[in-house]
């Protein structure tokens, strides 16, 4: 999606940064947003050649390059390194995070947006939440423990409110669980449709936990 909740969060945390790297830029939407909203020139890298082609057609320059190559020339130079909905796709997350830390300058910020494995996602049976699409899962406890493995200090964690386009999945996940445990008819289509309408029309969804966890770390040393 071109507009992500975590992008708005990221703008707040890169304000004032001079050198920013986004890993896994997709079609370049965050690169464009940072440029137009803050005047910050974000360097974007992406592995999907079709996404790079489309981004360049929109005037957004992305690079198809490995982090190891960037490290050869730019280690310790970035004020912020961002990855939105990317880490869960990486087959070797420890190596990936170590490279991110090496790219950061002292006191630089590592900014992550991830599917929250403690959210309604834990109740779903979703083939896209399995390898080879998602290679890892990230509950809040794991995110908070990253400073034990890397030279990082946790600055803040935020949870996405339930977005309108996730209301269907949220209702289905919870009513299916209730149908299996306590209320056999909880997942009846009429019950689900009424719950969906209620959450959307009243705005109550904004008080519920959505799918994304956003975390900002500061590099130590």
Structural description of this entry:
This protein has one domain: Rossmann fold (3-Layer(aba) Sandwich). The chain is 38% helix and 23% strand. The longest helix has 15 residues, at 167-181. The protein is of the alpha/beta class and 221 residues long. It has helices spanning 5-14, 29-38, 49-57, 67-74, 93-103, 140-145, 167-181, 189-202; strands at residues 20-23, 42-45, 62-63, 78-84, 104-115, 152-161, 209-219. Helix 4 runs parallel beside helix 5 and helix 7 (167-181) packs across helix 8 (189-202). The protein is built from 8 helices and 7 strands; from the N terminus they run H-E-H-E-H-E-H-E-H-E-H-E-H-H-E.
Task: Please summarize what this structure is.
The chain has 221 residues and is α/β, with parallel strands linked by helices. Helices cover 38% and strands 23% of the residues. Helix 7 (167-181) packs across helix 8.
Keywords:
single chain, 221 residues, alpha/beta, Rossmann fold, seven-stranded mixed beta sheet, 8 helices, 38% helix, globular
Q: Quickly give the CATH architecture.
A: 3-Layer(aba) Sandwich
Biggest sheet architecture: 7 strands, mixed
Helix content: 25-40%
The number of helical runs is: 8
Average predicted local confidence, pLDDT: 96
Structural class: alpha/beta
Number of strands: 7
Number of domains: 1
Sheet with the most strands: spatial strand order: 3-2-1-4-5-7-6
What secondary-structure arrangement, pairings included, does this model have?
Blueprint lengths: L4 H10 L5 E4 L5 H10 L3 E4 L3 H9 L4 E2 L3 H8 L3 E7 L8 H11 E12 L24 H6 L6 E10 L5 H15 L7 H14 L6 E11 L2
Parallel strand pairs: 1-2, 1-4, 2-3, 4-5
Antiparallel strand pairs: 5-7, 6-7
Helix pairs in contact: 4-5, 7-8
């Amino acid at each position: 999606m071109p507009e992500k909740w975590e992008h708005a969060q990221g703008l707040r945390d890169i304000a004032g940064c001079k050198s920013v790297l986004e890993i896994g830029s997709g079609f370049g939407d965050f690169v464009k947003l940072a440029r137009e909203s803050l005047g910050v020139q974000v360097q974007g890298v992406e592995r999907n050649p079709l996404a790079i082609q489309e981004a360049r057609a929109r005037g957004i320059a992305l690079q198809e390059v490995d982090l190891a190559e960037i490290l050869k020339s730019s280690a310790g130079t970035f004020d912020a390194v961002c990855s939105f909905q990317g880490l869960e796709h990486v087959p070797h997350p420890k190596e990936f995070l170590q490279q991110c830390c090496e790219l950061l300058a002292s006191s630089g910020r590592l900014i992550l947006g991830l599917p929250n494995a403690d959210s309604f996602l834990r109740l779903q049976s979703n083939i896209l939440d399995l390898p080879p699409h998602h290679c890892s899962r990230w509950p809040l406890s794991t995110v908070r423990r990253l400073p034990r493995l890397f030279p990082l200090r946790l600055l803040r964690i935020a949870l996405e409110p339930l977005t309108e386009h996730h209301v269907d999945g949220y209702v289905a996940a919870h009513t299916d669980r209730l149908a299996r445990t306590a209320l056999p008819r909880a997942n009846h289509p009429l019950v689900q449709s009424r719950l969906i309408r209620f959450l959307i029309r009243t705005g109550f969804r904004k008080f519920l936990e959505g799918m994304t966890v956003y975390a900002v770390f500061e590099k130590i040393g």
